[in-house]
Write a structure and sequence with these properties.
Strand order of the largest sheet: 4-3-5-10-6-9
Largest sheet: 6 strands, mixed
CATH architecture: 3-Layer(aba) Sandwich
Distance between the termini: 50 Å
Structural class: alpha/beta
Order of helices and strands: HHEHEEHHEHHEHEHEEEEH
Helix content: 25-40%
Number of domains: 1
Shape: globular
Strand content: 15-25%
């Protein structure tokens, strides 16, 4: 029997009081400044770190969070553009550190063929508090929609990145968004979501291994397969569950499911890129380590870029 979430009344959506009670329980557990910003400050001078926005969370969290993107100092108009994003869900650790490791170890190599822009941590408050939501109990990865650009939006993480991409005027060839699926999805985040919305919780089977979520409107089967092949050299690919699915979705090929990215407001729907994917690493596997999860994210990026080359 599933436990009742400790905040709210079953069947009744949260109001401001419940959201404030939830926020009061969130604690800072690690440092965005130390883990992310300090790394960016130490990058080679040939790379440019751009602050594209700031989350003004002083009243809710006691501080503001600058938001950063990394690119080459001078873009080459003859090369295609690729966007890599991590930390849309701040608690999904290997997405953030995979993006940083790619910047440190591979960025210059692949810049020979692409104009690459990396946003390593879209949700820094979520990173610090190990959270799926932002301070307003809003999921940034369901918020990449036009409504997030309105003045009263509670999805500042999505709004800032959307403005950055729109103002850049860039026509991206590809976008790789780095995520994880964790045991805490079932133990905390899905129960919290059901309580917030006043609905019945329905947990899903957590896949043991790496998988991809493709955009059903532009699936690019060979692109997804190339990433799966690259990652399989680093870690295991999630097998289908007893229903032949992963997280309730049918497999389209080994290790790949599809969601409609733009209609759901997912980060992978942010651009009109021809090639898009969302990675999903499983850090709670007996076969996984934090370093292995980071390496899997890097392999997904390099595998995708090698395919595009």
């Amino acid at each position: 029997m599933q436990r009742q979430y400790p905040i709210g009344t079953p069947g009744k959506p949260w109001q401001a009081e419940e959201k404030q009670a939830w926020l009061a329980e969130q604690k800072r557990q690690r440092s965005y400044q130390d883990d992310v910003v300090a790394v960016l400050e130490g990058l080679d001078d040939e790379l440019t770190v751009t602050q594209y926005g700031e989350l003004a969370y002083t009243s809710e969290a006691g501080q503001s969070y600058p938001l950063f993107a990394v690119s080459v100092s001078t873009a080459d108009a003859e090369k295609p553009y690729v966007l890599i994003t991590g930390g849309v869900h701040g608690y999904e650790t290997s997405g953030v550190h995979g993006a940083l490791k790619f910047i440190q170890d591979h960025f210059q190599h692949y810049s020979k063929d692409f104009n690459i822009i990396v946003v390593p941590c879209v949700s820094p408050w979520g990173y610090e508090t190990i959270n799926r939501w932002n301070v307003h109990a809003v999921d940034p990865n369901r918020s990449f929609k036009a409504a997030s650009l309105q003045a009263d939006s509670q999805a500042g993480e999505a709004a800032a990145l959307m403005r950055f991409v729109e103002e850049s005027g860039i026509d991206f060839l590809a976008h790789i968004d780095l995520h994880e699926t964790t045991d805490s999805d079932n133990s905390e985040f899905r129960p919290a979501l059901a309580a917030r919305d006043g609905v019945t919780n329905d947990n899903w089977n957590i896949p043991d291994g790496f998988y991809l979520v493709a955009d059903s409107e532009r699936p690019q089967t060979e692109f997804q397969a190339a990433i799966i092949k690259a990652v399989s050299a680093v870690t295991h690919i999630a097998p289908a569950d007893e229903n032949g699915q992963l997280i309730g979705a049918d497999l389209t090929q080994s290790g790949v499911i599809e969601y409609p990215g733009q209609s759901l407001g997912l980060c992978m729907g942010l651009t009109q890129a021809q090639f898009v994917t969302t990675t999903e690493v499983y850090p709670d596997s007996d076969k996984a380590t934090p370093a292995l999860c980071v390496d899997a994210q890097v392999a997904a990026i390099t595998g995708g870029l090698d395919f595009l080359r």
